[in-house]
Amino acid sequence: MRVDLFDFDLPAENIALRPASPRDSARLLLVPGDGAMEDRIVRDLPSLLRAGDVLVFNDTRVIPAQLEGMRGEARIGATLHKRLGLRQWQAFLRNAKRVRDGDRIDFGAGVTAIAGPRDEDGGVTLDFEGEEPVEILLERAGRMPLPPYIASKRATDERDRSDYQTMFAREDGAVAAPTAALHFTPDLTAALAQAGVLTETLTLHVGAGTFLPVKADDTDDHRMHAEWGRIDQDTADRLNAARAAGGRIIAVGTTSLRLLESATGEDGVIRPFADETRIFITPGYRFRAIDGLMTNFHLPKSTLFMLVSALMGRDRMQQVYAHAIATGYRFYSYGDSSLLLP
Fold first, then answer.
1. Has keyword GTP-binding (predicted)?
2. How many domains, in total, are found in the chain?
3. Which residue among 174, 181, 268, 305 has its CA within the 20 to 30 Å range from the CA of 210?
4. CA-CA distance, 335 to 212, in Å (whole number)?
5. What's the pLDDT tens digit per position in 274-308?
């Protein structure tokens, strides 16, 4: 399909630079498969779902994966996006033309790395020197990797270390937050439990590739970056049982959705999964695992807008986004949310 079919005009004032406070006060656009859209807030979720439904969250934890350093006189920026080994990460580099295989980059605070060869995704391997765990080095020298559409408008600050982390975060490894879950609070999850709504977690370490634009003119020519995920046997069993009992599986975020779909066979059975996925969902895809999606509002011509168009229909999502823009919904990572129920 042509990528320009997924374009739309987004005013800059609709881009959120800070999250709503409290988190569950963010706006929520309810989008049924047919019928009218409804303007709600995230705190309304318990009344919008049914007892026996399952919300599936991604428990990945964002690490401070952005580094600024020097290679000689050249300033180099690095965004780590995939662990390759104990002290080895794949990274996207800014000013990468100034870095050759074997060069040493000094990121300050005693953090140094040796650059390796480039890979097929355009990344560079970084081998961190010393014996301290890389996560400790990042806490000392790294910054939270805010998306470019926020970082270009303001500096990352200490507040982002908590704002850009969900309440479910426990598995270190993401360089982007599963942002749909940023809206949840302990009070909201308690209200959902009281309403009989179940919750499950899985892990998908979101990579920096999620921020990269689609450069191809046709979706067939776009290559997705790999991300590592895991669903254990017990979680898969509970999800299958809930669905067999009539509950709906509702992914909280496109990351949860992509992993669930990667782990589900043509027979609709969710199976244990521990591997990389490059799944790319566009209109025409037949969903096997999920019955709904809670997600923020995405970039024009992005793989994520293609995904929601696959779920609800492209014309429907163009109408949804036009309504959201006209009525002042806030877009992207720190923005408002939608509940899509095809």
1. no
2. 2
3. 268
4. 19
5. 999 999 999 999 999 999 999 999 999 999 999 99
Of the candidates 142, 176, 198, which is a domain's last residue? 142
CB 227 within 8 A of CB 209: yes
- Same-domain status, 58 and 195: yes
Considering the domain architecture, whether residues 217 and 83 belong to the same structural domain is answered as: no
The range of the structural domain enclosing residue 243 comes to 3-62+162-341
What's this model's pTM, rounded to 2 decimal places? 0.93
Q: Is residue 147 part of a domain?
A: no
